[in-house]
TrEMBL record:
Record PROSITE patterns: VOC
The name this protein goes by in its record: VOC family protein
Domain VOC: from-to ranges: 4-121
Domain of life assignment: Bacteria
Length: 126
């Protein structure tokens, strides 16, 4: 039986550094690795395809494109604790915590500059 994943491709300049980042800091596990060209890591239903410069996925990308404002969105139970844990690991954030009616979020980036949003939903009255 195959597992259904939502897959997202991130272009990275160093596949091994990206694998280390996602597995060490964000709870992903390696599904397959063909480093230095490609690896994919999974967390729950998300399959993150990490394509290095020599991968077919990266070669299909037009020149001049790169990491943009798109980002993966990871739901966190305790955002403050997760921020503290990641800061202890030396992870730098690219925003302050932003809080709105839906919850709180903060942005960080992987070693290639791809954005990751950590999000804690607001408590909802029952």
């Amino acid at each position: 039986m195959t597992r259904d994943y939502a897959s997202v491709r991130y272009l990275v300049d160093d596949v091994q550094a990206a694998v280390e980042f996602y597995t060490s800091h964000l709870g992903f596990t390696v599904n397959m690795s063909a480093a230095p060209a490609f690896a994919d890591v999974v967390r729950g239903p998300l399959r993150l395809l990490l394509s290095g410069p020599t991968s077919s996925g990266a070669r299909a990308t037009p020149a001049g494109t790169g990491p943009g404002a798109n980002r993966i969105h990871l739901t966190i139970d305790d955002l403050a604790a997760e921020i503290a844990r990641l800061r202890e690991c030396g992870v730098e954030f690219h925003s302050d915590v932003v809080t709105g009616p839906g919850g709180s979020q903060i942005l960080l980036a992987d070693p290639a500059g791809n954005l990751i949003e950590l999000f804690q939903p607001a408590d909802r009255p029952e």
